[in-house]
Amino acid sequence: MSERLAGKVALVTGAAQGIGKAIAERLAADGATVIISDVNTDGGKAAAEAIGGKAVAVGADVSDPEAVTALFEEIAKHGGIDILVNNASIVPFIAWDDVDLAHWQKIISVNLTGTFLVTRAATDQMRANGKAGRVISISSNTFFAGTPNMAAYVAAKGGVIGLTRALATELGQHNITVNAVTPGLIESDGVKDSPHNNAFEFVEMLQAVKGKGQPAHIADVVAFLASDDARWITGQTLNVDAGMVRH
Ligand SMILES: NC(=O)c1ccc[n+]([C@@H]2O[C@H](COP(=O)([O-])OP(=O)(O)OC[C@H]3O[C@@H](n4cnc5c(N)ncnc54)[C@H](O)[C@@H]3O)[C@@H](O)[C@H]2O)c1
Asked: What topology is assigned to 9-185+213-237 in CATH?
């Protein structure tokens, strides 16, 4: 750990639990003031209290434009955003035959439109304050693997990678870098409570490095991308899955 993010304000969406919570912990350990945002308001508060220090909880549903506007009004009070981590997401397990329009729209609205809404507001605030910014979006290696039972999710995560590539080009002139991270299967709170929990043995067989993916494996990479060490990296998708897929 270091103080390499001292003086920075970071927002992590969906940080009440799982990978988002681990990212918030890691960015705080590196010295950032961390805004923990989640639709689960009580969980977000508990995560912020557990981190202590400069962590602040602000409840918000990333798919609700008004909630996102209110979230950034709060962040402005802390000096404005430097680092955005788009992590909030619904992780479904649903066979294609059960995917209807309502499911499709729900997943796209949270996992892709939510990423758009928060990134829209964050990059506006970064530029208004003349800040060199970082946008890091959590996609998924399911986009490369074509994982079953997640069609709408995989489509949304591919959209996040597309957005990352396009925004890097437009925002580079403002010293804002835009990157994505694609985790493999990670033993998060959400996964532990879902049928994905049964996939670890199969996934480990496909990994080059053996073991069970943990939230900290992703948090450490996000902290690097958020730091000055990653200033020359933009528009990239960093796959973090112990070598399961190559792209
Ligand atoms: N766990 C994995 O195996 C894995 C693999 C690849 C990618 N990912 C991605 O990593 C990220 C975190 O996944 P996780 O496994 O920790 O999930 P999780 O289900 O444990 O946590 C997700 C968090 O997001 C919050 N959230 C859901 N909808 C929201 C909304 N509309 N607005 C704000 N917050 C909302 C939830 O309340 C929860 O706290 C997600 O983007 C997920 O797609 C996870």
From this structure: Rossmann fold (3.40.50)
Tokens for 20, please give them: 């988002």
How many other C-beta atoms are found inside a 10 Å radius of the C-beta of residue 82? Answer: 24
Sequence length of the chain is 247
- 43 among known catalytic residues: no
Q: How does pLDDT run along the chain (247 residues), one tens digit per residue?
A: 589 999 999 999 999 999 999 999 999 999 999 999 999 999 999 999 999 989 999 999 999 999 999 999 999 999 999 999 999 999 999 999 999 999 999 999 999 999 999 999 999 999 999 999 999 999 999 999 999 999 999 999 999 999 999 999 999 999 999 999 999 999 999 999 999 999 999 999 999 999 999 999 999 999 999 999 999 999 999 999 999 999 8
Residues 111 and 160: their CA atoms lie apart, in Å, by 8
Phi, psi of 41 (to 5 degrees): -65, -45
What is the Å distance from ligand 1's center to 15 Cα? 8
Catalytic residue among 19, 153, 225, 244: 153
Domain boundaries, the chain: 9-185+213-237
CA 14–ligand 1 middle distance (angstroms): 6
188 C-alpha to center of ligand 1: Å? Answer: 8
